[in-house]
Amino acid sequence: MSLTGLFLCSFLIVHMSGNLALLKSDGGQAFNEYAKFMTTFPPIKVMSYFTYALILLHIVQGLAIWLKNKSARPVKYAARSKGKNGSWASRNMAILGIVILFFLILHLKSFWFEMKFGSIPYVDYGGGKIKNLYEIVVTAFKQPWYVGIYLIALLAIALHLIHGFQSAFQSLGVNHSKYTPIIKILGYIFAIGVPLGFAIQPLYVLLFL
Ligand code: HEM
Predict the structure, then answer these.
(1) What span, in angstroms and rounded, lies between the C-alpha atoms of 4 and 58?
(2) Which of 15, 106, 134, 157 to mutate to test the pocket of ligand 1 (most atoms within 8 A of CB)?
(3) What angle do helix axes 93-107 and 42-72 make, rounded to 10 degrees?
């Protein structure tokens, strides 16, 4: 679970950084060219299939751990003392995971499915016709309720990552008086920075386009 989680973390960094092309005031050219590259360049396509497989594997691993923990402690703790039983996020990783899963289904239906199977309009910037995914994304992010769902999901992602990032290193046996505090700080920067980078995108479209 640590390895699939850490791979998905690297996916999030690439996905968030690439999507920042949305913020360019060029009528969507940079974003559409990036989307075309990501969906047609063969090595990236292979990585995409690998990503889908690891998302599914991560879900199955999470469910297995959740069921195991549940059967190990069928009766809930009578009382929770702060700090002793772990943080709220660490105790609710499965619930956070389910929120993220619902978000992912909505997200993939809105953009990924449209890009692959929908009838997206085409645009030509001088180098031939390409799909205008930018138009689809901007139309979606102009709806406040849709952006609201994204912000709630990104909060769940931040909480999931705050615990998940450092827990992954711990599970891999990285427990060192010198490195563990550094991993903790990096974990916080990652878990807050990446969702913030994602959140800027729908908010920018909603408020400034
Ligand atoms: C909030 C800003 C986000 C934007 C603007 C965005 C945009 C997009 C777009 C346009 C696609 C379709 C592109 C394609 O077909 O390759 C896509 C695919 C995808 N998105 Fe996002 N996304 C955002 C956040 C997220 C988050 C937070 C996650 C994960 C928790 C995520 C996971 C995915 C996955 C797994 C795919 C499929 C990738 C692939 O086919 O390789 N996205 N996203």
Answers:
(1) 6
(2) 15
(3) 150
Contact yes or no for 59/101 (Cβ under 8 A): yes
**For residue 161, pLDDT beyond 80:** yes
Closest CA to 152 of 199, 90, 207, 94: 199
Q: Taking residues 6-18, report their average pLDDT.
A: 97
CB 140 within 8 A of CB 146: yes
For the chain, first and last CA: distance in Å? 40
| Residue 24, pLDDT score | 96
The type of residue at 202 is P
Return the SS3 of 26.
coil
Residues with CB under 6 A from ligand 1: 15, 19, 22, 35, 38-39, 48, 51, 100, 104, 107-108, 111-112, 115, 133, 137, 150, 157, 198, 201-202
| Residue 123 predicted with pLDDT over 60 | yes
pTM of the model: 0.93
Q: What is the mean pLDDT of residues 167-176?
A: 89
Q: How confident is the model at residue 50 (pLDDT cuts 50, 70, 90)?
A: very high
Cβ atoms of 81 and 87 within 8 Å: the answer is: no
Q: How far is the CA of 72 from the centre of ligand 1 (A)?
A: 36
